[in-house]
Automatic annotation (TrEMBL):
Residues 187-318 form the Glycosyl transferase family domain. Keywords: Glycosyltransferase, Transferase. CDD domains: GT4_GT28_WabH-like. Its EC number is 2.4.-.-. It comes from the Bacteria. Residues 18-175 form the Glycosyltransferase subfamily 4-like N-terminal domain. One of its GO terms (molecular function) is glycosyltransferase activity. It holds the Pfam family Glycos_transf_1. This is Glycosyltransferase.
Amino acid sequence: METKTKTDIVFILPNLLPGGAERVFSFIAQNIDKTQFNATLLIIGFSKDASYDVEGINLVFLEKSRVLNGTIPLFKFLLKHKPDIVLSAVGHLNTIVAYMSLFFPKTKFIAREVTVLSVDVDFFKTNSFDPWSLIIKKRFHFFDKIICQSQDMQDDIIKNYTIKPEKIVVINNPITDHFQLKPETPSEGVVQFITVGRLSKEKGYERLLKILSKVEFPFHYTIIGNGNQKEAVLSLADEYNLTDKITHIHFTKEVSKYLAKSDFFLQGSYYEGFPNCLIESCSVGTPVIAFDVPGGTKEIIEDGVNGYLVANEADFLEALNHSKSWNPEAVRTSVYSKFNRTKIIQQYETLFNDLINA
């Protein structure tokens, strides 16, 4: 009988649309050690929606419009292939995979969460009764391990979901691309601001626009992203008479080019998981101004080194008016020392090997 030499891992995502989880999962799946692991990236959604190029691994699309519709095909796939490890991401998918794990006692199941959950729930809380809330809340008990992207996420799950600390591991997101460092050229004339991210309520675009409406020097603001708050954001920009100072781009594969042309990345979020856009901005040498909020932002931004962490809108406006000279190399080094691809991939590989050998 032939001895098995590699660990079979299935990474599961709802889709490959633009997003942090999608970028990180596809990156990890493609870059873990191929002499130790056989990686499959399984996507519930459609191949036509793929925004990331995936090469060198098995890529499977279930071609389903919703995670719920993909439940039976996913179950059949796992039943047929019997992987050693299943790694899923995003809350609703994690919920389904959690209860599916009961049918696969020989497989190790890992959940990767993407935000500070209790804060997210409170932010979007409604008065309507949700019969699924208890089922959703109990999902973590069925996983062998939970990956959190930041310390705040870990602390939140331990406190609010009664999960033992030893069941959780913190692994930050990696720098997924080889970003080119921008030249050290001081800004002249119009100051360039940029935000990259989903246009949704929790991202705080309304307070960024309010702050920018008070800026008295010439500037231009580029927003890259799409979402259900697009019309509201653009309408508010018009109310503040900022329309002529804003460029909105739905999607581009050249984000790094826009980051490099900018003087500051502006982050308005009320909370975050671990914002990839911030480490990408710092990777090209562009500093960040961000609110000090729950999540991984504070693990990325070193005040005065690669940007500013501020407490409120008044402090944010004050930071915009600072005349500090930033060294792109120093800004870049601050994140590469902590989030380089070699370091993060090694942490994933260690987690996989520890689970299999437990």
